[in-house]
TrEMBL record:
Keyword Chaperone found: no
Protein name: Long-chain fatty acid--CoA ligase
All copies of domain AMP-dependent synthetase/ligase, residue ranges: 34-416
PANTHER family in the record: LONG-CHAIN-FATTY-ACID--COA LIGASE, NONRIBOSOMAL PEPTIDE SYNTHASE PES1 (EUROFUNG)-RELATED
Source organism (scientific name): Streptomyces apricus
Similarity annotation: Belongs to the ATP-dependent AMP-binding enzyme family.
Keywords: Ligase
PROSITE patterns: AMP_BINDING (PS00455)
Pfam family, any one: AMP-binding
Cited InterPro entries: AMP-bd_C, AMP-bd_C_sf, AMP-binding_CS, AMP-dep_synth/lig_dom, ANL_N_sf, ATP-dep_AMP-bd_enzyme
Length: 555
């Protein structure tokens, strides 16, 4: 009987001793918070512009939120939806809900009314915590037809006084008569219930997918899933003691929730928040707080690099910078290093595996596949098994492409109340990612593209990522997205949407010719359209589906 090359975990040989060592995570983020309070109660946990909250204070404030929720009748296992940006209110709401024994639904603030209505109904949400503006503009009507019966609102200008007009240019609204104020509740001194500590197997989050292939489904991330990845990050990144994290990714996204919020809490560090991404405000926060770690999508680093005030000093405090949530072109890594110093470390994960299942360790740099030009996304961990299979589910040899499957402690048990979808996506507990990739002989994982995004041009397979990576080597290109569009002769043909760097000018035909010189004839884009900006999710991932649905290119 032939032994699986993936079961042998060739990547483990490249990990250092700390990264290979077994881990024993805390049972939940609540337990990690209590540990930090016992060890360093006065250390700053949250920094928000000119405001700070220490670990003891955060514990007391979130205790009060938990006591309020329990006092309003919230039971263990009930669902609490949190619809807030990166502010202390988000952190206190989530910790309070967990202390009350609840499951949190982190909801994208960019969701429209129908999208919010779906998750409130699908999860049977009991309590909603949101901004005062969202409640007044659309959430009151949305929640009226939902199971929600407890509402807390807050103004995200709370817990700071600087009121940076670039991101906090909104007024505090009068308190709604049908909701209570979150900051007031947090400072009221309510006692948290004493019998609702989360267990590792309890569902911490119901994280709804983006719904690219249908109605969004809720991945059930457990406390154990979260803490495993948080502890692997603590032991594997070799950050300084009490590290300063900057929340570049939104906390409602699984990357921000796990790799910033939970990992920082687990490390007893300081989490710097800046409401939402605005390149100038982010650079100022880097200069003020001198963070040592951040993670964000490649598009955020493109925007930071393009900002006229960006200098190497803005990035000089970082020990590790990671990228996740969107493909990372090799050209961007080198351009960023040449311009600002740091090497951006790739990573790979999904909501269904609680953010990362592979990453580039601090002591290594990711190789680039010489055939496709794809940058490796990293090495799986010692407890993770990544396999590559063909369309029939048979393992392919190392180096060959197929669908990426993941098994490990970070993989969720399934989807919320979707047994059929769970059985299809998690056969025998193994995650079928829907991504195409390969593992090389040394154990490096490469992601080629989404299976559903493959372009079939005259019978030839074209992976958009390969074309995009070539476009990113052009000095004028800031963002690139490649999609397949209908073609009467070829069935599908390749179309590229481009946004240019500030001050750059380039002819679409010249960009197509640039690709033609560097790619096989069937791969280069026959159509190129230049747009001011490309559409993105709140986490920074470029929306190919939106470009694909607009054949005339209008946005």
């Amino acid at each position: 009987m032939t032994t699986s090359p993936y079961a042998a975990k060739p990547w483990v040989a490249l990990l250092n001793e700390a990264q290979r060592a077994p881990v024993a995570p805390d049972d939940s983020p609540v337990h990690a918070l209590r540990r930090a309070v016992a060890e360093t109660p006065d250390r700053t946990f949250l920094a928000y512009f000119d405001g700070t909250i220490g670990y003891r204070e955060a514990d007391e404030l979130s205790d009060s939120v938990a006591g309020y929720l329990a006092g309003r009748g919230l039971e263990r296992g009930d669902r609490v939806a949190v619809l807030l940006q990166n502010s202390p209110l988000f952190v206190l709401a989530v910790l309070g809900a967990w202390k009350a024994g609840a499951t949190v639904l982190p909801v994208n603030p960019m969701y429209k009314s129908g999208e919010v209505a779906h998750v409130l109904e699908d999860a049977g949400v009991t309590a909603l915590i949101c901004s005062d503006r969202a409640w007044e503009t659309y959430l009151r009507d949305t929640a009226a037809d939902s199971p929600v019966r407890i509402v807390l609102t807050g103004c995200e200008r709370d817990f700071q006084t600087r009121d940076d007009a670039r991101v906090l240019a909104f007024e505090r609204l009068p308190q709604a008569p049908d909701a209570d104020d979150l900051a007031t509740v947090a400072k009221a001194g309510h006692e948290a219930p004493g019998d609702r500590d989360p267990a590792p197997a309890d569902i911490a989050l119901i994280s709804y997918t983006s719904g690219t292939s249908g109605t969004p489904k809720g991945a059930t991330n457990t406390h154990g899933n979260i803490m495993y990845n948080a502890e692997r990050q603590r032991t594997g990144l070799a950050l300084p003691e009490a590290p300063v994290y900057f929340a570049l990714a939104p906390l409602f996204h699984i990357t921000g929730m796990v790799c910033q919020f939970a990992a920082c809490l687990n490390s007893g560090g300081t989490l710097v928040l800046a409401y939402r991404f605005e390149a100038g405000a982010v650079l100022d926060a880097f200069a003020e707080h001198r963070p040592q770690y951040t993670v964000g999508p490649s598009t955020a680093f493109m925007a930071l690099a393009a900002h006229p005030s960006a200098t190497p000093d803005h990035f000089s405090s970082f020990a590790v910078i990671s990228s996740g949530g969107a493909p990372l072109p090799p050209a961007l890594v080198e351009k960023f290093r040449a311009g600002f110093g740091p090497y951006i470390r790739n990573g790979y994960g999904l909501t269904e595996c609680t953010a990362p299942c592979a990453s580039v360790p601090p002591h290594l740099e990711a190789p680039v596949d010489p055939v496709s030009g794809t940058l490796a996304v990293g090495l799986p961990g010692p407890d993770t098994v990544v396999r590559i299979v063909d369309d029939e589910g048979r393992e392919v040899p190392l180096g060959e492409q197929g669908e990426i499957l993941v098994r490990g402690p970070q993989v969720v048990p399934g989807y919320w109340r979707r047994p059929e979808a769970t059985a299809e996506t998690f056969p025998d507990g193994e995650l079928r990612t829907g991504d195409i990739g390969f593992v090389d002989a040394d154990g490096w994982l490469y992601v080629v593209d989404r299976k559903k995004d493959m372009i079939n041009a005259s019978g030839f397979k074209v992976w958009p990522r390969e074309v995009e990576d070539v476009l990113y080597t052009h000095p004028a290109v800031r963002e690139a997205a490649v999609v397949g569009v209908p073609d009467g002769y070829r069935g599908e043909t390749v179309k590229a949407y481009i946004s240019l760097r500030p001050g750059a000018e380039e002819d679409p035909a010249a960009l197509a010719a640039y690709c033609k010189e560097r790619l096989a004839a069937y791969k280069y884009p026959r159509q190129v359209e230049i747009l001011p900006d490309l559409p993105k999710t709140a986490s920074g991932k470029i929306l190919r589906r939106e470009l694909r649905s607009r054949p005339d290119g209008s946005l």
